[in-house]
Specification:
This protein is an all-alpha fold. It has two domains: 94 residues; 36 residues. The protein has four helices and no strands.
């Protein structure tokens, strides 16, 4: 865990830093300078290679950093949702850790909740309340 802690901190910090408007403006500026410099270099293959190589390397590295940050955020959200389910009286504890189930099981849960939602919407149209637990 400790060996990867530096990477997690680095990925989070880098993703937050790179997601700020000034960094986007800087990236647009770099592209602008590259475009303007085209005539100076005669739109040569080397001129094109510079931007292609630079953007490819940056994109390749950023994919890993952003994916790490997104995975951590998603995992934290799932844990928080699990805690809300666990601590809510009348909630179905079978929904804990749902993201780990097979697709068929997820589809069955989704169908159950879609049916409950459809019944609740019908009930609203008929003047019923949309609160409470539908199970007896």
């Amino acid at each position: 865990m400790h060996n990867t802690a530096w990477y997690s901190r680095f990925a989070k910090t880098t993703a937050q830093f790179c997601g700020r408007p000034p960094i986007f403006t800087l990236a647009v500026g770099i592209i602008g300078v590259w475009l303007i410099s085209g005539p100076l270099f005669g739109f040569s293959d080397t001129w094109q290679l510079v931007i292609n190589t630079g953007t490819t390397i940056i994109t390749f590295l950023m994919v890993f950093l952003i994916q790490n940050t997104q995975n951590r955020d998603t995992e934290a959200i799932q844990i928080k949702l699990d805690e809300l389910i666990r601590s809510t009286q009348g909630a179905h504890n079978a929904l804990l850790d749902l993201e780990e189930l097979e697709q068929e099981t997820l589809d069955a849960f989704r169908a159950k909740y879609q049916a409950m939602a459809a019944a609740a919407r019908l009930g609203l149209r008929l003047g019923h309340q949309d609160t409470g637990t539908p199970e007896p």
